[in-house]
Amino acid sequence: MRRLGMAAAVTASALLLAGCGSDDSGPELSVSGAYMPQPVSDSMAAGFLTLANDGGTQDELTSVTSDIAGAVTLHETVDSAMREVTELPVPADGQVVFKSGGTHLMFEKLKRKPKEGDTVSVVLHFADSDPVTVDMPVKPATYTPMTGH
Questions:
Q1: Which of 5, 22, 63, 89 has a Cα at 20 to 30 A from 98?
Q2: HSE-CB of 124 using CA atoms within 13 angstroms
Q3: What spatial distance separates the first Cα and last Cα of the chain, rounded to whole Å?
């Protein structure tokens, strides 16, 4: 009987701790590897970054703004076709990688053409989290980031 009581107490404690961690842990968002290849077009550019969520709750990227563009839209590439999306889930304890040929930002109606060495500021807006401002360096048009995977 004493063994059963101890096992029940340990199980209850584990459940309590698990419950506390997941209930109290909202999204914890961070950005790394942000860059914009120097655009070849005067009116459009692309942007790439990795958006990580180390929290216990999913969030959604709902929009992106930048003073350099009339609009910044979210795009996914599915079966070699690019399509605009209005929101992008950022999974709990996961990440979304914006990369060439995949999910990416499109800067439309550029107010000026960024050049290599410039920095473009963007603000990421989320359903639940506060906005995150990202300084995105402009890289050569042919830049390919090193991947550690």
A1: 22
A2: 29
A3: 51
Indicate the pTM of the whole model.
0.80
Q: Assign 3-class secondary structure to 84-145.
A: EECCEEECCCEEEEECCCCCEEEEEEECCCCCCCCEEEEEEEECCCCCEEEEEEEECCCCCC
CA distance 60 to 89: 4
Pairing of strands 29-37, 44-53: antiparallel
What's at 4, amino acid-wise?
L
Beta bridge mates, 109? none
Question: Beta partners for 30?
Answer: 52
How far apart (Å, rounded) are the C-alpha atoms in residues 100 and 62? Answer: 20
Phi, psi of 11 (to 5 degrees): -60, -45
